[in-house]
Amino acid sequence: MSGFTQQKMIEMEAKCIERFAGNPIITPQDVPFPCERVYNPAACMQGDDYVLILRVDQPDGKQCLGLARSKDGIKFKIDREPVMVPAENEFGHLNDPRITFIDGWYYLTYCSDPDGERLREEGIYLCIARTRDFKSWERIYRSQPDNRNAVIFPEKINGRFVRLDRPFRRGYRAEMGYDIWLSESPDMQFWGKHKLLLSHYDVEWGSHKIGPAAPPVKTPAGWLVFFHGAFIPESENTGWKKWCCGRCKVYSAGLMLLDLNEPWKIKAIRKNPVLVPHTDYEMNPVYRPDVVFPCGIIPEADGTIKIYYGASDYSIALATAKIDDLLKLLDE
After folding, report:
1. If one looks up domain 6-331 in CATH, what number appears?
2. Does the pLDDT value for residue 234 go beyond 90?
3. What's the whole-number mean pLDDT along residues 195-202?
4. How far is Cα 283 from Cα 281, in angstroms, rounded to an integer?
5. Which helix (H) or strand (E) holds 105?
6. Do 32 and 8 form a contact (C-beta atoms < 8 A)?
């Protein structure tokens, strides 16, 4: 990846995606229960309400999910208590939620990744829970380790539920990078027909790892899919890095288009990233700079979308775009 820099990526960024001038829209100070960081929100509509499910990292090292509502998709009011807390076998951790509404149910995907020796022994699990009212939750699925970053398509395809996810090996090594896979299920509990959709080898700016971002958006041209990618700038590339809080990885967002009836087929993909960290809140040095991480997208009746994303693993930001403009990017 000779000569590939964050500044070059910023210059590649899609001009048709506009950040909200009032970003960030949610910070830890807005959360009415103990919160150290709030980010990576799932997003959906419930009637006329915009709903965000928030990843909340708490001061004691545990995680939970918060719920926020809004009438305009910008100013959110957060419930005074978490909407979901970890079950006993989730080891105090719930993170990176995504949500999809199908047939009267809101299906929430998230992952559980215990710390220390439990991570070594147990691994990272992909989980699915469902609710009708955001008050009571039914946990219906827990994967084998290791898997995370799942998004569920907003309707059945050929009579089956379909999801994208990012399985990965426990060895964090360059030759074991992370890819995006597709699978199908008759009931959200049994998943099969696994297919490799996109390899990290095919995403220059995501050469460290890639994964699905927000649930796909249906358009006449195909399924519009945002995904995330991370790379290590040459100045910091002193070896394969599993995880770090300092400035070593750059997380950006990309875009591809999948076939409506055969979603394992990529119709188009943008070579360059569409959203790259460069604002102060996306490069916040408090915890983990250089991160934009979309987890929720809400399509509007006027042909635009609201993109909700985590900024620097610390706060939540909003961007907007016209679907037609995004499709034009893929035509290019």
Report:
1. 2.115.10.20
2. no
3. 94
4. 5
5. strand 105-112
6. no
Contact 76, 92 (CB under 8 A): no
Which residue(s) pair with 307 in the sheet? 297, 319
| Contact indicator for 148, 211 with CB cutoff of 8 Å | yes
Spatial separation of the C-alpha atoms in residues 301 and 290, rounded to whole Å = 32
- Calculate mean pLDDT across residues 140-153: 93
Give residues with Cβ within 8 angstroms of 109, minimum separation 6.
97, 98, 99, 100, 126, 127, 128, 150, 151, 152, 163
Residue 173 has pLDDT above 70, yes or no: no
167 with 149: CB under 8 angstroms? no
Phi, psi of 290 (to 5 degrees): 70, 45
- Alpha helices by DSSP H, listed for 53-96, are none
Q: Is 207 in contact with 177 (CB distance < 8 Å)? A: yes
C-alpha–C-alpha distance, residues 122 and 99, integer Å: 25
Tell me what the pLDDT averaged over the chain comes to: 91
3-state secondary structure of 324: helix
Instruction: Tell if the pTM clears 0.85, that is, is over it.
Output: yes
pLDDT at 253 over 90: yes
**Alpha carbon 309 to its chain's center:** 8
pLDDT computed for residue 8 by the predictor: 85
Tell whether the model's pLDDT for residue 134 goes beyond 50.
Answer: yes
As a whole number of angstroms, the distance between CA 191 and CA 50 comes to: 30
Residues in the chain: 332
Cβ-based neighbours of 278, under 8 Å, separated by 6 or more: 6, 10, 13
Cβ neighbours of 330 (radius 10 Å) = 17
pLDDT of residue 85: 96
Please report, for the chain, how many H helices and E strands are present, in that order.
3, 21
- What is the helix (H) or strand (E) element at residue 194, kind and residue range? strand 192-198
Structure tokens of 259? 């076939």
